[in-house]
Specification:
- The strands form 5 sheets. Strands 3, 4, 5, 9 and 12 form a 5-stranded mixed sheet that branches. Strands 6, 7, 8, 10 and 11 form a 5-stranded antiparallel sheet that branches.
- The two termini are 42 Å apart.
- The chain has 2 domains: 187 residues, G protein-activated inward rectifier potassium channel 1 (Immunoglobulin-like, Sandwich), CATH 2.60.40; 105 residues, Orthogonal Bundle (Helix Hairpins).
- Strand 4 and strand 5 form a beta hairpin.
- The protein is 31% helix and 30% strand.
- The protein is of the alpha+beta class.
- The protein contains 6 helices and 16 strands.
């Protein structure tokens, strides 16, 4: 009973029946789960979670679409409903109406054109309202994207198995790419693997004990170490055995960002194909008389293979 309770606590939510050979967590921290059959899509989450390029593409598309719709309406009303221009051809009339729509939508109003008659004035008034509401929504979305706390944690491309305290240890390295201060940074590492139980292959989980799971400040790089000793589920297991078990190491970081005054989170994972055996990380910082301590972020992936091990 105690063992079942422990297994339930260490289950990360994927369940023991999941037998996919693919990784559970992608390198960017997203869950490797595809939802089918039903999707609760909202425009707000789409615009806040998409990339900056995607966000601005959505904004530009909306901007052109709305102004095009109103330009068609204005063209249908006829250019005689607007003072300052004369009718030429359909394309020229539409172009004039489109740029008049832009001026109304953005409340710029250069004054070269103005609506004449009730119909044109009512449509222009409606568009001015749509423009004000659109600007308010866009401002809120932009602020939401800028103010959302995002951890810029850089992970080493590979984890390593290196000598450690008369044995070996699983290690990977992280660094903060920003100059902001992250305090009380805590690391949690779990592992999941396939194991045969009573003739049936099931998925197992375990929280891994770390040599150190918290640092008060995070000014430099941090090599997170899981000793492969008697307390480790991978004690005395070699490279071929770990690959056969389809082991995946799941990483979760949590800390307090002084810039945002909020907690920040970051996660990733390492599979057996991303582990370098019998290696050690090269130093990525040094002392300088003028600059002080210099952290070289481009060297976070530098490893050195250790011979005769």
């Amino acid at each position: 009973m105690a063992k079942k309770k422990k297994d339930a606590l260490e289950d990360l939510g994927f369940g023991s029946e999941v037998q996919s050979k693919k990784r559970f967590i992608n390198k960017d921290g997203s869950l490797n789960v595809e939802r089918t059959g039903y999707r609760n899509w909202t425009l707000y989450h789409q615009l806040t979670e998409t990339s900056w390029l995607g966000f601005f593409m959505h904004v530009v598309f909306y901007y052109i679409l709305v102004n095009s719709i109103f330009a068609v309406i204005y063209t249908f009303l006829g250019v005689e409903s607007f003072g300052g221009i004369e009718s030429e051809n359909v394309w020229e009339d539409f172009s004039h109406m489109f740029f008049f729509s832009v001026q109304t939508f953005t409340t710029v109003g250069y004054g070269a054109m103005s609506p004449v008659g009730m119909a044109a004035n009512w449509v222009a008034s409606l568009e001015a309202l749509v423009g004000l509401l659109s600007a308010a929504v866009a401002t809120g979305l932009l602020f939401s994207r800028f103010s959302r706390p995002v951890a810029q944690i850089l992970y080493s491309k590979h984890a390593i198995i290196a000598p450690f305290q008369n044995g070996k240890a699983f290690m990977f390295r992280i660094a903060n790419t920003r100059d902001n201060k992250i305090m009380n940074l805590e690391a949690k590492v779990s592992a999941t693997w396939h194991e045969e139980v009573n003739g049936k292959e099931v998925r197992k989980y375990a929280f891994l004990k770390l040599e150190r799971n918290r640092v008060f400040l995070f000014p430099l790089s941090w090599t997170i170490v899981h000793p492969l000793n008697e307390d480790s589920p991978f004690y005395s297991k070699g490279e071929e055995m770990l690959q056969k078990m389809n082991v995946e190491f799941l990483v979760m970081l949590e800390g307090y960002d002084e810039s945002y005054n909020q907690m920040i989170y970051s996660n990733t994972s390492y599979t057996c194909e991303e582990i370098v055996w019998n290696a050690k990380f090269k130093m990525m910082f040094y002392s300088d008389d003028e600059k002080g301590t210099v952290l070289e972020l481009d060297k976070i992936n530098d490893v050195e293979i250790m011979e005769n091990l």
